[in-house]
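Review form for a predicted model. The reviewer records the input and the model, then writes brief findings.
Reviewer: anonymous (R2)
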Amino acid sequence: MKETGSTGLSRRALLGAFAATAVAAAPTFANAAGFLRGAGDIRRIRMYSGRTGERIDMIYWIEGKYIKDAVREVNHFMRDWRTDDVKSMDLRMVDIMAAAHNLMDANEPYMLLSGYRSPRTNAMLRRRSGGVAKNSLHLKGQAADLRLTSRSVSQMARAAAACRAGGVGKYSRSNFVHMDCGAVRSWGG
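Model under review:
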């Protein structure tokens, strides 16, 4: 049964309109979990990939519930672009990214450098660089390497660290921040 009001709009349409208006106007913070104060009642993720040319801008969580189709799109977007392997991203990671983005009050989307990494990709990167962990949280879908042109690495790292919900790595020379939902810790310069 479809609920409609006097205007003829369904409850779902009204909720969608409310969500879009709320995100455009200002995120709310009242009911956010304590460790993700910046996430709000409506959570939105905005990213683009220079590797694939894809963009994502969506509300993935409304009032305590993840939107399955949106989560599926986030998982696909954050796939290993080298192998096209998709992994279910840990939603705590996506929440940290959204909260940090809100805390920075940034208008631009994140540039995703690395989300999920397949074992094959991680092994190849380890051979090329000493800075890639053998048991990287990227392998579990629990980490992302991100960049914003409008914010410094230090600003991004401070926002992620303020969430107190995972690891934050500063890679100033490479101009990106690693965020993960593992143990709370920080590194880099």
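Findings: Helices lie at 11-25, 68-77, 91-104, 119-128, 153-162.
Further findings: Confidence is low (pLDDT under 50) at residues 1-11, 13-35.
Recommendation: see findings above.
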